[in-house]
Predict the structure.
Amino acid sequence: MTSAANGSPDAAGGSLGATSGSPGPTNGLTIAVPRGALFNQTVELLSGLGLDTAELRSNDRKLLFEDIGVITMRPSDVPTYVESGAADIGITGKDVLLEQAAQRGGEGGREVYELLDLGYGRCTMVLASKAGPDPAAEALRRLGVMRVATKYPRIAERYLEETGRQAEIVEVKGSVELAPLTGMVEAIVDLTATGTTLREHDLIVREEIVECTARLIANPVAHKLRAREIDKLLERLRAA
Amino acid sequence: MIHPIPSGTRDVLPDETREVRAITDALRGVFERHGYGELYTPALEYESVLARADMAEAKPAYRVFDESGAALVLRSDMTVPIARVVATRYPTEEPPLRFCYLAHCYRGVRPQRGQPRELLQAGIELIGAPAPQGTAEALGVLCAALDTVGLEGYRIGLGDASLFPSLMAGVDVPEQSRPRLLEALANRDFVGLEEELSGLGLAAQDMELLLEVPQRRGGPEVLADSVGVVASAVANMREVHELLTPEVAERVIFDLGLVRSIGYYTGAVFEVYDPALGAPIGGGGRYDELLGRFGRPLPAVGFALGVDRLHIALMGEERGTGASL
């Protein structure tokens, strides 16, 4: 049973779950941590807050680190766990948030707070095509439509729509670079940090769509009921 | 044979129905005891009639055409139909008028997110009772309803829909930039809000104010050092709070950044949170201009609870586990 109602508003958080109330750097909050490209810097950040991350670093098969209030998952699952309340806060890339955002400003976006730009994991969402005369431009001129392969169909669709171009979006799950090389599409929309992979496949960046960095997100109910813990953490992260 | 039903809808079988019935009976009892008479309205309404209200994101999602070609919609809430009822059926009745409902409403969904297309709402509308008394009465009924069904850990977030707009006006944010800032706030995107603000060339302290004030939430201390431009919104919140009984007042979390996605709210807005559920159980607020759009200008306030969400939260509390670990 919960006891939040009996306390002052600030005491409201004390009852959110088994790990709550436990002292420590995260004040008993459950954090969703992304495996993959953002993992190392996220663990660094958490270490910097004083969290004991030894097991988190050493055991990459484990998912649930209850004693430090951490759960790990792929970055695109972070908003799902945070939205549901299974995690109070989480860290994921802006690319993930944009891909899961509402399509035309309307409803359907993830119900999470985006609290802080953590600055790391910086990369750029780009439109790229094969070097030489731009095959996408040619397709658009002669066929009226360009085919674009991407792992980010919503971002790609929104961007091409906003820039007034007709496009056929082809969603792929694996190496996007393959799609233009085989002639399946004329262009790709993908995330690039250094551009090395693109260069290796003879692709060049035609347009930069948006810069993406790691973001701190929070569950909308935890944001109210555990305001003090979340604000304290925010303050420390801002200072870090 | 398996015959599908649309995603976001479901059949409710006897075991569940018994539990839901216990909740709805209890809610109905509380509403009736407080003088709120239950009513039914048609699930289908003329699109042109409901469109008088500014529903913003919650506008009806399903549209059909009748025999004569008129556009009908499935209602997306009960507040707008009740505004229609008041203007049409109670054109001269002495206010205040009190209504309650237990009714299904229909919303659009995004696929594979477990969102309901059809949701059972329980709520009240208090028509003709201005702030702050009317608001305080509605909050009292809300807490009585939640107490009666046995929810224990809930809190009420209380904000004011006029707060951020008056903040923007107060520091002279250009008129054309205001909708974008409000949208960032409604999307809960404080990083986006900061980005939008930094492009406006505002004075540093004004920018700080626009970023910091909507992140204030907690006990009465968050109202303490309120700045001039939000003074009236904060005064409204304080007035409501002073009228609440101690049991209701201690449930309240002041939230200077609370924004509801429905467009017709004008003053106090509120949401119900419980540690056992990751999403608000319900919410409401003042809609002092909605009735006027239907031809009977009266101040009003109301709330709606999602019965299914309430059921999940009750079960979560019973098991002693929140949605969290």
Q: What stands out?
A: Confidence is low (pLDDT under 50) at residues 1-22 of chain A. The first helix of chain A runs from residue 39 to 48. Residues 123-212 of chain A form a domain with the D-Maltodextrin-Binding Protein; domain 2 fold (CATH 3.40.190.10). Chain A has two domains: 4-121+214-239, 123-212.
